[in-house]
Design a protein that fits this description.
Length: 127
């Protein structure tokens, strides 16, 4: 298994270096690739803060990568939910991950963040 780092994911998504983007695409087509949650988080930060990419576009592009049949990420369902929440809300990605862990895996989240606690409370009431 090959682990893709943030730089590889960014080159693929941004296509700012065509040769590197093609190399990443070929690797994903031919090998089983792992994208750690930390890489997803860093890619989101760079795309949003450095490149000014809109949240919903970040969501769409990263989900597209994660849905590649040769790409795996730990806690896939949690990460997918977190990406969807990131595109739909103002929460930062880590809070979106926490919501995913609570909703999908049933974990209780200890937080002093009022907005996060309120969202988690609503989510619990809906299920």
């Amino acid at each position: 298994m090959i682990i893709l780092d943030t730089n590889a994911v960014l080159r693929f998504l941004l296509r700012d270096d065509v040769e590197k983007a093609v190399h990443v695409r070929n690797t994903m087509d031919q090998e089983t690739c792992l994208i750690p949650v930390e890489v997803v988080a860093e890619a989101i930060y760079v795309l949003a803060k450095i490149y000014g990419v809109e949240r919903v576009l970040i969501q769409e592009k990263l989900l597209g990568v994660l849905w590649n049949e040769n790409v795996e990420t730990p806690n896939q369902g949690v990460v997918e939910m977190a990406l969807c929440l990131f595109g739909e809300t103002k929460f930062d990605f880590v809070d979106c991950l926490l919501i995913g862990y609570a909703h999908i895996e049933g974990h209780q989240i200890f937080s002093f963040d009022g907005k996060l606690k309120k969202y988690l409370s609503r989510l619990t009431q809906e299920t």
